[in-house]
Structure to design on (149 residues):
């Protein structure tokens, strides 16, 4: 179904470049936290994710974390470490916090890309609000793959 089909699939959030975003025709990024920016057991984003966020913002693409996670301190820690705005308890695929993120960035939903690891939350939420969607492989799956190698 088109509602669950992302525009782009990547292994990691760090694979997304300003060129990727330009090709999608977007001006900003909304990104999931758990299993997208970091694993459930990662108290802070890995250094490569911090570097990625800084390079995306420096290229002119604002970022906002929109997470279903209810733990305020965890979501805040990631937002502060990345230097971006954040929202918790978003209840994706419901769209109210995705719309709020767009408003706060001064962009229309169609000018944003939602990045996440779940088709039924992140891609569907993006589609319902009119955003482009990038689906990444979950951090948990990547960590499991590394253990097996």
């Amino acid at each position: 179904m088109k509602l669950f089909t992302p525009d782009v699939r990547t292994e990691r959030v760090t694979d997304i470049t300003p060129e990727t975003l330009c090709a999608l025709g977007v001006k900003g990024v909304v990104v999931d936290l758990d299993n997208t920016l970091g694993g459930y057991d990662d108290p802070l984003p890995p250094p490569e994710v911090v570097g990625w966020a800084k390079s995306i913002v420096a290229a002119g693409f604002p970022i906002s974390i929109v997470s279903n996670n209810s733990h305020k301190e965890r979501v805040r820690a990631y937002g502060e470490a990345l230097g971006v705005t954040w929202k918790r308890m978003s209840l994706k695929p419901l769209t109210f916090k995705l719309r709020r993120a767009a408003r706060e960035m001064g962009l229309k939903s169609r000018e944003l890309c939602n990045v996440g690891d779940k088709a039924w939350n992140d891609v569907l939420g993006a589609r319902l609000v009119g955003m482009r969607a990038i689906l990444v492989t979950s951090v948990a799956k990547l960590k499991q793959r590394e253990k097996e190698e």
The domain at 2-108+115-148 is CATH 3.40.50.1000 (Rossmann fold). The two ends are 33 Å apart (CA to CA). The chain has a mean pLDDT of 96.
